[in-house]
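Field log, afternoon session.

UNIT: design team B
ACTIVITY: writing a sequence onto a fixed backbone
BACKBONE:
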């Protein structure tokens, strides 16, 4: 299996995780199938869509419709078999896959923006984070839920750290781009996985309005 093929399958796994986790997150609102597909698909491709619109380049799924088809199929599966996904092991697996998807898409987006030379060096980091969490933010707004940015969940912060580190690698050690991207993806996923396993959150002192005791 080539690196491109491995990257493609990893991206598909991340797309599935984004779509499934989105449907499960709104299941308690008893949404219909159409709403589930809309919210799940927006979560899966929304961040990358916003990124490409800002970059004024063709939206990635317009030339690779498999992202849309996989998203829709995943949403339907989650809608039909949501009881199955509620099982503790399966639900945890989806969360970990979602974390891996955020790591992969964030670092990939950072590299894409860097290669386009768009507003270096800050834009690659910003758009990397937007790609990873943008779809989820749009979903939460549409569903009337508390967004990730308004919670203490360690989701966006690991992506931010990984994207910044990847930029440093691109600046100071570009010859190690491949190894650096793999390391940054692994770092983001490790932090996210730890936050899931041990229920870690943003510390209170880092929150606005916090008070030292």
């Amino acid at each position: 299996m080539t690196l491109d093929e491995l990257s493609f399958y990893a991206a598909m796994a991340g797309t599935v995780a984004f779509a499934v986790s989105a449907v499960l997150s709104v299941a308690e609102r008893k949404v219909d199938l159409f709403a589930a597909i809309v919210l799940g698909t927006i979560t899966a491709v929304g961040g990358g869509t916003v990124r490409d619109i800002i970059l004024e380049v063709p939206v990635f799924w317009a030339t690779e419709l498999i992202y849309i088809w996989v998203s829709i199929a995943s949403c339907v599966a989650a809608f039909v078999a949501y009881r199955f996904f509620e099982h503790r092991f399966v639900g945890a697996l989806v969360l970990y896959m979602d974390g891996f998807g955020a790591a992969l898409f964030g670092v990939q987006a950072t590299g894409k923006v860097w290669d386009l030379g768009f507003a270096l060096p800050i834009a690659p980091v910003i758009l990397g984070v937007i790609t990873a969490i943008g779809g989820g933010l749009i979903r939460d707004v549409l569903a009337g839920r508390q967004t990730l940015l308004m919670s203490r969940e360690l989701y966006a912060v690991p992506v931010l750290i990984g994207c910044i580190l990847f930029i440093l690698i691109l600046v100071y050690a570009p010859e190690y781009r491949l190894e650096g991207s793999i390391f940054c993806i692994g770092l983001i996923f490790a932090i996210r996985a730890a936050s899931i396993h041990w229920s870690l959150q943003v510390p209170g002192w880092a929150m606005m309005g916090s008070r030292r005791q």
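LOG NOTE: The CA atoms of residues 109 and 207 lie 28 Å apart.
NEXT ACTIVITY: expression trials, pending approval
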